[in-house]
């Protein structure tokens, strides 16, 4: 039997699931492959398909050394199917079947539920590639361009991961769903992506960094929940995806951090102490901190919406079925069934924001969102340390969960960033104090000029502390050729 740590590159689709002996699935995937490449070429990074990009490719699932780096043209990237190794004797971690052996095949009674979850997860992966496809042209450096493309090819691989599950375990309807994943398009009026946040454009690089910090982190939490699945192939797939996902959040956190760093340095160099001296700060070609705060408000609130309703029967059903667990389910000390447990949920009752104890089973989404909020706070603290170190009096804050919501308890009301309920009038009047205005967007847009000289960076962002794969500062992460050069 093949060593699960290493990946078979002999079939057209690299994999560690022994596709060579699984002719039916191999054939189905080979049939899907040209459509995927067609999608990548039409909807992937615009103008850079001929360029050589210094990318990591997964060559094993060994946590200590799973990737190898090298130049590759993106359409020739070896997208593969990689599952974390099977755990001997793994059991279903939660719900009514807790403690029974994990399923290696789809349990009939949960087939529709499982398929839906896999399709929703799968739909987000290519969506973000579509949202980001124009960004290469305005990359602030080759280093950043390379990171963008790395995230993009890995989101492409995550699509493969979900398509493998659909084609291996869901027969004809799985194949149909796999085709639909290439048919829906971000922002398309007739056949949009499934979730709202994945139909919004990513217009500039600060949005990209915010997206990878806040929205990829929602993805991480969803994957964490699915990694707990009693359906073992889904769990193993998600566990390996999480390894890659860490880099996406690194790109977001350091991207925002380097933007903040540059702003603070320029303020200091020019003797500006007031972070609200916006026109002057902007005149030096950097993004003022209040605007960065507004972008954080926006992306954080849109990402909270992705967790769905605080009280949810669907979420309760998925947990009870053992299809989806809580964040770090195995480490939680309780009965993992939640028959009688309660969980505190922030609700809107009689026009007031109050904490209400609800059945824990119904509050699964809420709990995952709470875990997300904690997880998202870490990087924000590190951003604030950068500001503090430069001696500037400003703090980036995550807004109250009632602020700017379109899903769940608070979607019907307006609240300011501190969670104070306000009228629609006041919201409309003050919106631009809290969220990026058209003028803010135009200003950021005006800074989005490409800087493609190796080792150089656009005016608004600092260089990274260390290179990717320990490369020196002037390393040529992308060798640009083809359409991008003529643009
Ligand atoms: Fe992903
Ligand atoms: Fe990601």
Main beta sheet: 3 strands, antiparallel
- The percent of residues in helical segments reads 40-55%
| Distinct bound molecules | fe (ii) ion
Low-confidence segments? none
Shape: globular
The strand line-up of the biggest sheet is: 2-1-7
Count helical runs.
Answer: 13
- Mean of residue pLDDT values: 95
- Round the Cα radius of gyration to an integer and report it: 23 Å
Strand content: 5-15%
Describe this structure in words.
The protein has a 3-stranded antiparallel beta sheet. Helix 3 runs antiparallel to helix 4 (171-183), helix 5 runs antiparallel to helix 6 (232-269) and helix 5 (205-227) crosses helix 10 (364-389). It is built from 13 helices and 7 strands. The chain is mostly helical. One fe (ii) ion is lined by residues 125, 155, 158, 219. The site of one fe (ii) ion has 5 residues, from helix 5 and helix 6.
Question: Any key phrases for this structure?
Answer:
13 helices, binds fe (ii) ion, two-stranded antiparallel sheet, 487 residues, 3-stranded antiparallel sheet
Summarize the structure.
Helices cover 47% and strands 7% of the residues.
Helix and strand topology:
Layout: H1 23-43, E1 52-58, E2 67-73, H2 111-131, H3 142-169, H4 171-183, H5 205-227, H6 232-269, H7 278-283, H8 289-305, H9 313-321, E3 342-349, E4 352-359, H10 364-389, E5 414-415, E6 421-422, H11 424-434, H12 438-447, E7 478-479, H13 483-486
Helix pairs in contact: 1-3, 1-4, 2-3, 2-4, 3-4, 3-6, 5-6, 5-8, 5-10, 6-10
The protein binds fe (ii) ion (FE2) (2 copies).
